[in-house]
Design brief:
The protein is mainly α. It contains 18 helices and no strands.
Amino acid sequence: MDEKHLNVEVVDSTLREDAALFEPIRRTGKSFYITLLILGVVILWAVWAYLHQYRDGLGVTGLARPIFWGVYITNFVFFIGISHAGTLISAILRLAKAEWRRSITRSAEVITVLVLFFGVGNILIDLGQPDRMLNIIKFSQFQSPLLWDVSSITIYLAASSIYLYLPLIPDIALLRDYGEKWRWFYRILSLGWKGTERQHHLLEKGIAFMAILVIPVAVSVHTVVSFVFAMTIQPMWHSAIFGPYFVAGAIFSGIAALIVAMNVIRKVYHLEDYLRPVHFNNLGILLLVMTLLWFYFTFTEYLTTYYGGEPIHMAIFWSKFTGRFAPYFWGMFLFCFIIPLPILSFKRTRTPMGTLIASISVVIGMWLERFVIVVPTLTNPRIPGEMVLYFPTWIEWSIFAGCVAFFILLYMIFTKIFPIVSIWEVREGREKSMAEVQERIRTYLPGIGVE
């Protein structure tokens, strides 16, 4: 057999193995373009709404003195929280050598990088004039939590991007060698990857280093986001618990967002053989733990406020429990606790569909939680003044819808350019994992000798 026929057979064998993972890149159906069109319309509507706000000023929104933060800052905290899906889940599972992680890490890491842009974007939208962002550099004061926020998010975005890119390199090389289009693009991004033992060793060391690095960075980011609130003396914001409370909430919403994304990917690209019920069961258990942890922090926060009994704090407290913000507060409790808890508590309901329902509920509830934190406090400032009620306008809702649509669009485009499941990691798992797991068991179980 000549070399040409041998190369053809190698290519065919490579494409047949894990063909389902190459298929979204090789073929694009009508449904993709229809979805693209719908998302494009929503994004264009949001752009038109933003241009209306840019031309006429923030007065077209529901924002007014003293309520300078509303849906936009709610979105900022919400999107930054969801970004924890990739770094914490993926990094912790990698370091723990959880073999079931191999099919899910990339879909998590992509969420992290993409959603960060929308968190930052909502800050720019809330400023009215985006060039005001330069003031944080021109007039920076290191004692300002706002500068801490900018610094931590910048570091987080850089670290998360590297952490996403490194495991992509072997798969990009596969597309370079066996792909049918954009080979020049993949050739540049593959950085000369040849799959040698030395390259694999260096890659694994780089991924392990980044996994260790991104965990404290991710924790610090949402802690610093909470400092933007907690470092003020505003009632119900000036709280030492806000740091861990925000981090727990971020992981909570991040896991939920990952489960939603995995369900969609599994159904649309027919990846049932890669994203199996065991993945959803395991992530469902993690989501259950975070449900209980979220309830603990929420209960503790409101219990200490109630026992303190400070009048201005209690005014906000009762506005959430029985006042005009009660629908948002009890909606938050319903979606974050009442609905997901029974679904996630039993193995027979921790199915792909069950975890999807619970996760959608959590995502909605966590957005409401951010809204309940931001707005009620601003309607009851320490300095008495004219009562102002905040009602988001169509401008704010349109921009929020545009952010969600744009995120989905970018995620879709990523799946058409790169494999959404790590091909080389799945193959490595098939070839090496059984031996590695057996070797690890031999090192810590009593009664099994280590040669």
